[in-house]
Design a protein that fits this description.
The protein is about 70% helix and about 0% strand. The chain is an all-alpha fold and about 280 residues long. The longest helix is centred in the last third of the chain and has 33 residues. The protein starts with a helix and ends in an 18-residue tail after the last helix. About 35% of the residues are buried.
């Protein structure tokens, strides 16, 4: 277990130093540069609200992959890792999607091989399966422990989480009719169903009577929690806040649908329309 603890360098959590990983800065900077380049290339500007959403998404990504959240999740606490995963899958993607105007996406969709793939993977059943398979697979001990032992595998894990999460949010937040969002009844059903697989994974972790991820058992204790208690706390973080987010979405969608009367197709079009001129 000591070997497992040394696989990642241990940071000094008592200092004010904010650890920054160049690969994340390069990736986040590239996303921001592509956003600005696309706006200049198309000679159109996202609305101020869209720019704020997109920048907020990049900031959440940066804060999740650097600094205390990253250091705690990599070296000390399973529960911190679950906070990081929730930020990367349930907070960052909707901010990015809200920040990208539909007209910015139409140019790449004009490419022959991208459009069919996008239409396939953004369909609600496919997005549902892809996201939940990715989440479930990476929380199985063999894959999770491999990611803890090898930083390159860990990077692949996070990239898969973020891509799958963008697909998962698409049926709820699409900004273009070419890849439509679900109608309000479908959004409510989709949100309800989405809460179930993550709960199953969380229950599997919470009900375990032994430590599933040994790297955390070998780590120094930075909170008065045993490794098994930390594992239980992480499962509860995945289960309760993760589920609450989808129930909040269901509530918001219900009131939007109720405001539109009996139109069962309402919500399939973009009903939040910032300035796209």
């Amino acid at each position: 277990m000591l070997v497992l603890a040394l696989l990642h360098p241990v940071v000094n959590l008592t200092s004010w130093r904010w650890s920054i990983h160049p690969s994340t800065v390069i990736g986040i900077g590239a996303l921001g540069a592509i956003y600005l380049w696309a706006a200049n290339r198309l000679q159109r500007q996202p609305s101020p609200a869209q720019k704020i959403y997109f920048l907020s998404g990049l900031l959440v990504m940066f804060a999740s992959l650097n600094g205390p959240i990253h250091d705690l999740s990599d070296d000390y606490l399973f529960s911190a890792h679950m906070v990081q995963h929730l930020l990367l899958t349930l907070v960052m993607p909707p901010l990015l999607l809200a920040g990208v105007p539909g007209w910015m996406l139409r140019r790449p969709l004009a490419t022959g091989f991208i459009a069919p793939a996008a239409r396939f993977f953004t369909r609600a059943p496919i997005a549902f399966v892809v996201f939940n398979l990715v989440i479930a697979a990476w929380h199985l001990p063999p894959l999770y422990n491999a990611a803890m032992a090898n930083h390159n595998i860990h990077i692949v894990e996070h990239l898969m989480f973020m891509v799958a999460a963008v697909l998962m949010w698409w049926p709820l937040m699409s900004q273009i009719p070419e890849l439509p969002r679900l109608a309000y009844p479908g959004q409510m059903l989709y949100s309800f169903l989405m809460s179930i697989p993550m709960s199953i994974v969380a229950i599997y972790i919470a009900m375990s009577d032994h430590v599933l991820y040994p790297a955390y058992a070998a780590a120094p204790r930075v909170l008065p929690l045993s490794p098994l208690e930390d594992q239980l706390l992480g499962a509860l973080i995945m289960w309760i806040p993760g589920g609450i987010i989808f129930y909040i979405i269901m509530t918001v969608v219900f009131f939007k649908w109720n405001a539109r009367g009996e139109d069962s197709t309402a919500g399939a079009q973009v009903d939040w329309k910032p300035s796209t001129a």
